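Case 399 in the screening queue. Each case pairs one protein sequence with one candidate compound; here the compound is FE2/S2 (inorganic) cluster. For every case the pipeline is the same: read the inputs, emit a complex structure as tokens, and attach any notable structural observations.

Predict complex for case 399.
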Amino acid sequence: MDRQRLIQTAREDLAHAKAGTIQQTPSHVEVPADHYVDETRWQQEIKQIFKRVPLMLATSAEIPEINDYKAMTVLGVPLIISRAENREVRAFFNVCSHRGAQIMPEGRGNTHRFTCPYHAWTYNLSGQLTGVFAEKDFGAVDRSCYQLTPMMCLERAGLIWVHLDPEPKLPIEDFLCQYDEALAGFNFENWHYFDSQVVRGPNWKIAYDGYLDIYHLPILHKATFGSDFPHRANYYPWGPHQRVSGPNPGLIEFEHLPDDEWPLEAAMGGVWTIFPHISIASFDGGGRGVLLSQLFPGETVGESITVQHYLLQDKPDEEGEKGAREQFKFLRYVVEEEDYATGLKQQVALASGAKKVVTFGKNEGGGSRFHAWVDLLLQTPDQELGALFKNPFDPLLSE
Ligand code: FES
Ligand SMILES: [Fe+2]
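Case 399 output:
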């Protein structure tokens, strides 16, 4: 557990609260407006980012039991994530070894075998071919040559990362930059999976900017979160991943304690983002909960799809279930009617060509750092990808 690093972030939040200050980048950062609307660049982002770095595609709480699985399609790639007999998580392309049919329909479930709907070839949850229908007629099949095509995956901190690239260039551990050790403070592996819902929004970066943006909270969300909501944020990077939190005077009660006696919860607040497309924000509804938002580029440059997952620390009772349902509905409203409704209009406005750049302020370092990482990945060839994460640096400070 990267405990010391985490407690440092909480101490910094406290120091800013006491001094009445906030983190600031050395200068404003301009991002070309066409980065949000350019079709060619958008395709590069899918290729160079989403298909080159591992993506956090499932939570452990979605497939907690042996033989649980989740089938999904990500950027046109059909895949299955499963928990095998030894409890290990595996991921496979959802593509039959016979003639390439998709084996499992999208969704979650529990099964002893995956059976292809086309000619009933069957596979176990470790991806081994276990049955060939009418094999005498088909001709003998060497099972070892017909396994499901595995995808590199890793379960850490109750979250599951998968590489869409069948020949990944980047070890998942390196990509995480030890952020998983900090995320482990949530103990997500023991949480309860409540539900998911899908929200459609603008370009994935317009949408994602909003999750790194605290500045807008008392303004755009005045009707929901309130106009006295704090607008200032500190950003703590682990490579491209960032924890976002505010100056917190409440931490003063722990100030005199040595690092190893600080309660971990003191450092788990705020918004946790996982590059390039995840945000985890804490809420209280039906008990301690988080909204885990998973963003994907949509069908066109101006569209994205967000899967909102709601997780609860404890399985709710009837009352808690009601509270969680209301909270989840409320969060959909906030994102759909306030964030994305604004973002969809911003998309149209930026496409007009009226502005050459958009500007991130000195206290919007989260957004500018995110865009710097996007740029970096677009510029970095495969053979240099590993080095980018092995000794991660902060592109905001390297200028
Ligand atoms: S394509 Fe799957 S069994 Fe034929
Ligand atoms: Fe927002």
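Case 399 observations:
- The chain has a mean pLDDT of 95.
- Residues 3-53+188-390 form a domain with the Naphthalene 1,2-dioxygenase Alpha Subunit; Chain A, domain 1 fold (CATH 3.90.380.10).
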